[in-house]
C-alpha cells in the first residue's frame, strides 16, 4: 500500500514561534480554548522525557495498582482526567492556570532526549524526515524540532513551579529510585496507598512489563504511523545512552552550547546515573 504523503512527513508549522505538527496548528483555536476542569491532572513533558512511563504510573495510582481496571476506565474517561501535553509553558491553554490544576512535569537530560527523539522521528511518520544524526542534532540544538527548544521548555516549566501546583520530576531520579519518586508523587496527589499497592505499581510500570503491554508499548498504532521495525517505541529505557550516539566532537560542541543556553538557570540535570 502507498503511504499518504499528504499527512506523513509534513513540515512543522510555526505557532507563536514554536514549531508544531500541522494537525495541531490547524486546530489551534480549539487547543487554546480547551476547558480544563479544576480536578484535571496535567502531565506535561518535552517529547521523549518519560511521558508514557509517568502517565502509566499516574493511571495506576488512580486505579490502586489495578492494571486491568485502567484499560476499562480509560474507555469511559472517568474523572479526574489525566491530560497530557508537550506544549511549552507559554502555549498552555490558560484554563489550566485559571483552575489552578495540579501538574506533573517530567524532564530528562538533553542528550538522552536528543537521541531518543532521533529514533522516534524515524519511526513515527507524523514527524518530518530526521535526516542524519548530525543534522538532527543541529535541529535539536536550534529548537527546530516538534515542540521547539528543549532548553526553553525545561526552563519555562521550571520557572513556573513555585507559583503553581507543579511537581517537577526527573527521569533520571525515576530510574535511580522509582519507589521513592512514586511516593513523592503520592504525596503531591494527597493519596495514601498501601506498600503492597505501591509495589504493584512499581511492577506494572517497569520498563520490561510496559514493553510487553500493548496498552503502553504503542504496538496497536498502525504501522504506517509508527514503524516499530525501524525503532520500537519502548526502545532502551536507560540513562546515558547518548554515549553510544554522540561522537567526541558532537559532545564537545553540545556541551559548550548547553552552557550558554542554560546559563543563569538553577535547573540541573544528570546525564548518567
Ligand atoms: P528511549 O528512546 O531512550 O528508550 P515518551 O513517553 O516521553 O515519548 O518517552 C519515551 C522514552 O521513555 C523512551 O526512551 C522509552 O523507552 C522510555 N520509557 C518508557 N517507559 C519507560 C519505563 N517504564 N522505564 C524507563 N524508560 C521508559
Structure in words:
The protein is of the alpha/beta class. It has a single domain (9-262), classed as Rossmann fold. The protein is built from 13 helices and six strands. The strands form two sheets. The chain has a four-stranded parallel beta sheet, with helices on both faces. A hairpin with a 2-residue loop joins strand 1 and strand 2 (18-20). The termini are far apart. The model has no long low-confidence stretch (mean pLDDT 95). The site of adenosine-3'-5'-diphosphate has 20 residues, from helix 3, helix 6 and helix 12.
- Biggest β-sheet, characterized? 4 strands, parallel
**Number of discrete domains:** 1
Q: Shape, please?
A: globular
Low-confidence stretches: none
Second rung of CATH, namely the architecture: 3-Layer(aba) Sandwich
Features:
273 residues; Rossmann fold; binds adenosine-3'-5'-diphosphate
